[in-house]
Each structure stands twice: as structure tokens, then as C-alpha cells.
Amino acid sequence: MTQRRALWVSTSLKTKGGISSFVNVMRETPLWDRWHVRHLATHQDGAAPVKLLKFARALGGVLWELVVHRPNVMHLHMSSYGSFARKSLIAWCGRLAHVPVVIHVHDGRFELFFKRCPRGVQRYISATLNRADVVIALGETWAGRLAMIAPQAYVIAIPNAVTPRAQAPQPHGGQPVNVLFLGRISDQKGAFRLIDAWALMTNASVNRGAARLTLAGDGSVQEARERVQQLGLVDDIHVRGWTAPAEVEALLQSSQVLVLPSRSEGQPMAVLEAMAHGLCVVVTDVGGISDMVDGTCAVFVPVDDSHFLATALGSLITDHARRERLGAAALQRVRERFDADVAWRTLDAIYEKVAR
Length: 356
Description:
With 356 residues, the chain is α/β, with parallel strands linked by helices. The chain has 2 domains: 6-161 and 339-354, Rossmann fold (3-Layer(aba) Sandwich); 177-337, 3-Layer(aba) Sandwich (Rossmann fold). The chain has 14 helices and 12 strands. It has helices at residues 18-27, 31-34, 48-69, 82-96, 110-116, 119-131, 140-149, 191-204, 221-230, 245-253, 269-276, 306-318, 320-338, 340-354, and strands spanning 6-11, 38-43, 73-78, 101-105, 134-137, 155-157, 177-182, 211-216, 237-241, 257-260, 280-284, 298-301. The strands form 2 sheets. It has a 6-stranded parallel sheet with strand order 2-1-3-4-5-6, sandwiched between helices. Strands 9-8-7-10-11-12 form a 6-stranded parallel sheet, with helices on both faces. Helix 4 links the parallel strand 3 and strand 4 (101-105). Helix 8 packs across helix 12 (306-318) and helix 11 packs across helix 13.
């Protein structure tokens, strides 16, 4: 039997973000071996010359794969702007080589990117998506938006995926409740509103020592540490900065609440990873978050409202039963809708349909 081959093209698996997280999850599923997936990275963190060299090498690698190894399908993972420019060029190379192309759009703000482009670029974007064999969106809402951009495209929704874990244990014997923030430390992600909310909470409803907040992520790390010091919260809040994946896993296993009070989001992997560990999640109703959770498995807070966030966190920290119940419901939702085992089987079926 002829060996089936799939070529995956994305950012480097060492970069931060949802695309690399999704690809790394899929690497651990049977899909990788069933289709003998070859992965090429077109982008990595670094200065402009480094990024340009990375893309040039990747483009050469793609052309080699298309001509020499002739994959049965090429799966492109993209977001907007530079990512779209790189992957769209590769998509047209695939079409010229008569290799089926699957375009996987990971950016929930792709529609905004499209609207900001000049009319000629919009036509190019539409043509690129229309000519793909399959276009994948992260949810039904985004699938509808992509269908408006590319009416001739075959668009389907496949949400981000994670591997369900055991539910993280609840504290006992006077141990503090561990609250975790995972993401870029910035106003866009709500990190500074969260620090302010923590100060309000400890001054109003939660005793010092009853809970501890950890912020893990890159961005304005030093500014966050200075804010924590100014508010006198150095014993209550730990700003770790960027954290390696293995350490993130340990943080998830030892936490009970994840809070992500963002101003905008796509379908954040941090929320899915927290749900997969049975954490109670506190989020804003922005982007695609409402496609992931509802009031039965999460707590919603308004954007930029530190007082409301303080009240919500205080309630969860003191209500152990509710916190555990919401975390268990979040884990169950992952098993039903976001399990990597379901995602890889869906992709396998797509490949079987389009592969030549």
C-alpha cells in the first residue's frame, strides 16, 4: 500500500501562541503517524532578517516536498497579515503542483484583517480561500464570516483541541486557592485590571493568605511587578514572566482557577488547557470565548471592570463547592467538544476525502 503523506506548514513549534499549541497537541495523536506528517516552519521569533531567512528556507523546503515527495495533502496553519502573506504564497504553490490544500485559519479577527485591506488585496484573499480544497475555522461563528469572505470555499468548523487530564485537586487544611493567569501580560489581556481587582478583593472580602495569584506570560513583566509592589501585594501575587511549557503544565496541575479578563480573544488555548485540567475559568465574553464556555462551566465578567472581577474572584475563592463544580463541568465540556481524539479523527476524514 502506498504510504500516505501530509505536509503541515505553520509557525515554529517553539513560538508562543495558539497555532504552535494546536500543532503540538496534534503531533501526539495517531494522525501524525497515519499520514506520515512532515512539518515545516515558516516563521520564528526574532529580528526581521532572522524571520526572512526562516521563510526563505521554508519556502525552499515546501517546493522540494511538492516536487520530490508529492504529499497527498498540504495543511497550512495561518492567522492574518504576515502569516497570511506567507501561507497564501505556499497555498498557490500547492495549487500549481496539483496538491490538495487545506487552509486552517486560527485568527478570530481574520474578518477585521480582511476589512482593513485594500480592495485588490481583498480579492486576493478571497481567491486564495476559494481555491483551497477545504478552509477550517475555529468555530461556527467564524466559519460563517469566512464564508462571507470566500463564498465559493468549502468552510468547516473544527475547534481547537486539547487532551483531557485529571481534575486538579482542591486545597485543603488551610492551603491557599491558587489562581492563575496565562497569557501576554498586557492591558489587552486584562492583566493590570486583574492586579487592581486582586487589591480590591483582599481589601474587601478575602483574607490575606486565602488565595495566591500567579501571572505567567511575556509582555510588560517588569511593569506588572512594579504595580504589584506599589499595591503592597508581593506576598499575594507572583509575576513569573515567560514560562516554559513543562512549567505551565505544573502550574495548571496545582491551580484551581484560571482568569483571563481579555479585551479581545480568538479561541484561547490557555482557557482550553485550564478546562482540560478541571479548573474553574473566569473570562470576559469576547471573541470566540462564548463558543467555548457558558454559565454552566465558567464565570463571565465585564471587560475592564476591576470591581466586578474582584467580587467574582472573591466569591469563587470562598465558595469551594461552586469552584469545584464549575471546574468539573469545564472538564466535561472538553471531553465532549474539544478532545484531541475527536479533532484528529475529523482531520483524518478530511484528508481521506481530498487526498490524491
